[in-house]
Task: structure prediction
Amino acid sequence: MTVPPHVDVTVTGAPVFENAAFGLMLPEMIQLFAVAFAIIFSVVFLVMRGRLYRTWKVFLPVGTALVALMYMLGMMGIVGFNFNAIMLGVLPIALGLGIDFSLQLHTRYIEEREKGREPVDAAASAARTTGNTLLLAMATTSIGLGALLVSAVPPTRQLGATAAFGVIAATALSLTLLVALLVQFDDDEYDQTGPTASDTTEATAAATAAERNSSTDSKNKNSPSPEPSANDQSSGVLSDDEPAFERFIGTLSSGIAASPLIVILLMIAAIGGGAAVYHDVPTTQEMLDYWPDIEQRDDLEELESTAQSPNVIYLLVESKDAYSPTTFRRASAFETAIEDHDDVNAAMSSVTAVEMATGGDIPERRTRLIDTVDRQAASDLMPVGSREDTPDRFVIQLFVDDIEGEEVRHLIDDTEATADRHLVTERTAVTGKPVVNRNVIENVTSGRDPMTVLSFGLATVFLALALRSVRESVLLVVSVAISAVMLISIAMYLLGIPWNPLTVATGSIALGAGITYGIHVHERFKEELFERGSTPVVAMREAMVRKSRPVIGSGATTLFGFGALGISQFPVLANFGIAVALAMTFALVTAFVFLPASALLLARWTNTYDIVVDST
Result:
């Protein structure tokens, strides 16, 4: 048949649109990964340029992260995970967090070499000191991502499991492959200037620590620590030959140490504001909004606006004697009642087919009823399935208006209630694509709070056991992770970024990344405090300065890497990229602003860190 030249024909429908959208996934994945990798590599190069004596060695941490990424892809193949619109986000997650661990160890190796240690000794020292912190960060990040396993959305569960495996692989390779590469390609290019201004000889450190212990023993353990003296505030000042970035962080540290209470008030305000708007962040209400804005989507939307009943909902009726006159009469009463609903235009089923063949009556005898059903099914004039294939059930099709959001839920509830009234002895179930889509959307918000509470609770317990200090555990979780999540909620609310199956994972990612950054700073703070005998103010300044480049560098790689998702044609991915970029930004802010202020007040007002000294 030839279509007249003045007639346009468009083949459309959900299968056509979905086929076109799925066809975009592979090129989209390749494009996004290429952009993300280019951005991440550029950021790592810029951040590490001031610390590397051979710029090509930036490939060592990046290459290690790429090998971890290959391990993760292999794991996906083994367990049978497939890429989809949600799983596309796992690549920048694994790459960004993987580079974080590599940069931490690489930076510490450079620091140890500059102190005059030989390559093997420097690698051993870096693995020993940074390795403990990496293991803590890995476990906490894995807990945060592992909490996604409680999600009711399968791709979200797969995202959590895959990303957690990627983090574990990155940690293992950083402590093995990267260490070997650093020693192998060490060209003895480091300026071995001996101890830096912040370092002391072991004898001096031991003497200072002993003096601190003696002083601590002579005081009341519950008395607050003295205010930092002018010498404390001025000691450890960075020299002019330090890079400008480190000098800026040193200035920031001095400002925080001078007014920690103001910083804490800002933190409390952030947590309160985020909690107030957390549940007001909108949720994507229409599954079509998860997909790219392509021509096939426009055709489908035009169809939905033109056709009277573009959507179909099904009521499955099951019974041991489904094809009996009694069951058919009850189903007929249901169809009559549901067609009075404002959103239902018509009902169609085997019952309808029988009524059309008999003039509106249901046969009294079972044999005649079954014979009529079989004749109607064989005629192909009615959408009636074969009775022999499903003798214990039949389906009622409900042709409904173009409804979305809460209207779909109301129709589902009304259909179930009407079925319960009329089909009292039969088992019924409402199903169909609108129903499945609505349940997915509702599971997004229903699983969000349990995932967040579970991840934060497990992280708090784990850190309390690992650090042997409830105070330090709460310090890290509240000042870094919870603060970051609340700031993210405020930003999403103001920017109109909705919750969807990917953005609900933002809290767990912020927990993992934020705690990782906080642990790096906090563990270096304790190292300066107890091993070198520094005062809290000087120890925090040194921790912030020495950890600023690797932590902020790794955070920037993840931030900009996820920012690449913002160009995705898939709205679910674009919103996720923006949300995680915000999460990385706020995680860095809380790790370098809220955490130092909280730790300094904890050192000043409690004996938390004195207890640590006494126990070691």
Summary: The chain has two domains: 14-199+247-280+439-615, 292-431. The radius of gyration is 31 Å. Confidence is low (pLDDT under 50) at residues 194-237, 611-616.
